[in-house]
Amino acid sequence: MLSIEEALKIILEQTPHLAEEEIALVGAAGRVLRRNAVSDLDLPPFDRARMDGYALRAADTEGATADHPARVRAIGEAAAGHAFDGEVGAGKAVRIMTGAPVPAGADAVQKIEVVRVLDDGWVEIGEAVKPGQFITPRGIEARAGEVMVAAGERITPSVAAVLASFGCARVIVSRRPRLALLSTGTELVEVGDKPGPSQIRNSNTYSLGGYAREAGAEIVSASLVRDDFDATREAIAEVLQEADVVMLSGGVSMGDYDLVKPVLRDLGAEVRVEKVAMHPGKPTVFALLGEKVIFGLPGNPVSVAVSFHLFARPALLKMQGASQIQLPRIHAYLTRPVKGAPPRRSHQPARLVISNGRAEAEPLKWSGSSDLVAFMRADALIIVPEDRPGLDEGELVEVIMLSK
Questions:
Q1: Is 59 found in the same domain as 33?
Q2: Lowest pLDDT segment from 29-38, 83-92, 246-255
Q3: pTM for the model
Q4: Quick one: 155 and 296 in the same domain?
């Protein structure tokens, strides 16, 4: 039985990278950038006003107060997209709007709230300013030629805004992994069907599909497979024709109807991982068939979710060349005791809360790895080390933050 670290190492070493493709930035959210994005200009490209007010020379406001204001003459206006074409000399000022270029000769901006505009073209400055005040200097955010977004970063809305600022109308990203989902089990019925005796509705397709899309995958098919060797073999062989990754749930343990591993070997796949020292999720399977990646995940809803987050999610991101493939981990104080499962490492569903300025992990009451209703409320997994029979209330523990 492999440790979690050993299993993950094998999975990531054997997971291939996908090809690149060029797409429009407008549709790139969630994709992984495969080439460095370099700034084509300074940002901001000019000294920029941070306030509505007047651009002037700081020296002209020295000693100014509300009772004894400095007086300068207004000689023009600068607005966003419309620069003042001239120079601000001694005793002069230019009316300026937020975001406008600071005119030549001016070294400060005074906000409009402390300025009094007189009728004869003069303005009174009721508060002194220092050089550089209320100005964002040219190039302080970025310099031309700098790498602004590194290859491997996922394109979020905020990353897209940066790329747009530097003219990246099209970007080189990884192709999405094409994923086929197969839920195995004669007891399963589709979500729209009413279960009969000894039957349950298929839920794993919907959890795995959602998790996989969040990890950048494209779902190309999703279907149920009954517990039959030939039916399982045919279903896997069929979806392998179009998918980069096949993800099965159920049928991976040691029972008479757990057929996934025998079928994979019959198809010629190399089973590299088949048992991991973890709870839940011990019978997690990873296999390769040529360049195709196959995951066999446990059938119980909580087990399948834990196994996906620990193994399948990092693999999907690695295929896309992502630089950050692991879910974030933090430390939090335990609000109630939890049991472990020696000699396996245990992962207990929890909710994270902030109480009295500190992070706390609140274990969820759940009835086992089939309790999908309790897991719905989880946003973290409490890690119980393999050598611990349990963790105590108030203990500082490590938790994995789940994607939602």
A1: no
A2: 246-255
A3: 0.87
A4: no
